[in-house]
């Protein structure tokens, strides 16, 4: 029987909810490309309830314990004496969400001799040292597509909030003001602007589709071209370099995975390609950007605004400069963990566990690493190597909280 360590974010500071804002959520059974939503044999949770925090347990306890397994749930994941570290010695499976990632570095993997699987309850397994997982023959899987559309909605929301200067205007209202000129001195329409996505995968393409009705000019940069029919339908301009995309666009959004090839793709040098006053929205991964180069670009006016929900490390230390830089619209990492998304990735995690324990194949579209190499979706989306460097900084958040 296996020990499963499940790392989840903390419950709300005012307690686990006793009731919810809505009574139900739409039941999504298929994604836009035809992939089916997760199909576990059963679920032991109510869709629409908070599952991603410690008390929610991704709805997994009944299933795991009734099959004789041991489930340890904790939010204590950073620093050498964390509960996660204490539990690793006999853990067979570690599960975490990118919003509150259990950084599975080579050192941590070495502390877990029985570890056989690392599951990302969500999308994006860059918090695991994939090279170390490959070297140890550990399976890495994620719940592909579970929250791609959720993130795309967040991207569009943040683009509009930056361009229209929503957050400062909202703040004037709560301060009791009616300062129209202060609000509109940085407010524009998105209509007619040029908007580009770095990567047109599940999220990037969804963003392009959602933006089409705003009558903007759409651009994308991707290693592979979208089908001609899609390019025509959305009137897309394809770019083969970041330089070309950045020079053409007023708004740029990053939607590619973080791996050694994409780390710090936005830096002082590449920012030179951007038009003055570009808005940058990054809900993909914080480390795609050089942290301090973003601050400098906002201070100089090269960027008119920066928003997103991804930081490095996570949780971001209190003194992380993105908390206080000018003209930002950052949220904590929440775009892919709406209550709607949680229901899908909790079910997807259970589906992966059911396959694992019954010796059946995990869906190819969920696999990142298997049998010592990149596999399934991972072979397409990731490069071998490690992107967890510096993750020990996440312990700084813990020290003051
Ligand atoms: P997909 O795998 O569908 O899309 C990724 C795309 O990135 C693919 O089209 C791939 O291109 C492209 N790509 C990879 N490397 C490069 C590169 N160097 N330059 C340009 N394009 C590149 O994944 P999703 O769209 O579902 O998710 C994308 C990322 O978003 C995830 O990896 C994750 O990091 C992040 N994410 C964030 C969430 C949040 O809550 N904020 C939630 C979910 C995901 P190709 O296929 O042509 O090789």
Automatic annotation (TrEMBL):
One of its GO terms (cellular component) is cytoplasm. Substrate binds at residues 123, 147. Its EC number is 1.17.1.9. SUPFAM superfamilies: Formate/glycerate dehydrogenase catalytic domain-like, NAD(P)-binding Rossmann-fold domains. Keywords: Cytoplasm, NAD, Oxidoreductase. One of its GO terms (biological process) is formate catabolic process. One of its GO terms (molecular function) is NAD binding. CDD domains: FDH. It catalyses: formate + NAD(+) = CO2 + NADH. It is an enzyme of class 1 (oxidoreductase). The record marks 285, 333 as: Important for catalytic activity. Residues 156-335 form the D-isomer specific 2-hydroxyacid dehydrogenase NAD-binding domain. NAD(+) binds at residues 148, 202-203, 222, 257-261, 283, 309, 333-336, 381. Its main location: cytoplasm. PROSITE patterns: D_2_HYDROXYACID_DH_3. It is found in: Cytoplasm. Catalyzes the NAD(+)-dependent oxidation of formate to carbon dioxide. Formate oxidation is the final step in the methanol oxidation pathway in methylotrophic microorganisms. Has a role in the detoxification of exogenous formate in non-methylotrophic organisms. Homodimer. HAMAP family: Formate_dehydrogenase. Belongs to the D-isomer specific 2-hydroxyacid dehydrogenase family. FDH subfamily. This is Formate dehydrogenase.
């Amino acid at each position: 029987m296996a020990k499963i360590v499940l790392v989840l974010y903390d419950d709300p500071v005012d307690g686990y909810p006793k009731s919810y804002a809505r009574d139900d959520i739409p039941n999504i059974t298929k994604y836009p490309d035809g992939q089916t939503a997760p199909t576990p044999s059963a679920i032991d949770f109510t869709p629409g309830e908070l599952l991603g925090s410690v008390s929610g347990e991704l709805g997994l306890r009944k299933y795991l314990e009734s099959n004789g397994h041991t489930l340890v749930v904790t939010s204590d994941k950073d620093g050498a004496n964390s509960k996660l570290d204490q539990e690793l010695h006999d853990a067979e499976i570690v599960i975490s969400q990118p919003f509150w990632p259990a950084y599975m570095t080579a050192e941590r993997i070495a502390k877990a001799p029985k570890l056989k699987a690392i599951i990302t309850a969500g999308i994006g397994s860059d918090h695991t040292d994939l090279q170390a997982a490959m070297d140890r023959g550990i399976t890495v899987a994620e719940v592909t597509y579970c929250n791609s559309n959720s993130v795309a909605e967040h991207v569009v929301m943040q683009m509009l909030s930056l361009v229209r200067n929503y957050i400062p205007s909202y703040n004037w209202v709560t301060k009791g003001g009616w300062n129209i000129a202060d609000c509109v001195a940085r407010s524009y329409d998105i209509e007619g602007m040029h908007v580009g996505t770095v990567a047109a995968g599940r999220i990037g393409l969804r963003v392009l589709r959602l933006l089409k009705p705003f009558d903007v000019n759409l651009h994308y940069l991707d290693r592979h071209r979208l089908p001609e029919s899609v390019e025509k339908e959305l009137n897309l301009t394809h770019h083969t370099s970041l330089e070309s995309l950045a020079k053409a666009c007023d708004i740029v959004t990053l939607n590619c995975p973080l791996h050694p090839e994409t780390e710090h793709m936005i830096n002082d040098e590449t920012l030179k390609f951007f038009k003055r006053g570009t808005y940058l929205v990054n809900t993909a991964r914080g480390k795609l950007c050089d942290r301090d180069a973003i601050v400098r670009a906002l201070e100089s006016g090269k960027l008119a605004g920066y928003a997103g929900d991804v930081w490095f490390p996570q949780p971001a230390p209190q003194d992380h400069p993105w908390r206080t830089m000018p003209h930002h619209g950052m949220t904590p990492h929440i775009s892919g963990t709406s209550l709607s998304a949680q229901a899908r990735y909790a079910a997807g995690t259970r589906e992966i566990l059911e396959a694992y324990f019954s010796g059946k194949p995990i869906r190819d579209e969920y696999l990142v690493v298997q049998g010592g190499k990149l596999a399934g979706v991972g072979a397409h989306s990731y490069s071998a190597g490690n992107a967890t460097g510096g993750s020990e900084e996440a312990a700084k958040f813990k020290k003051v909280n």
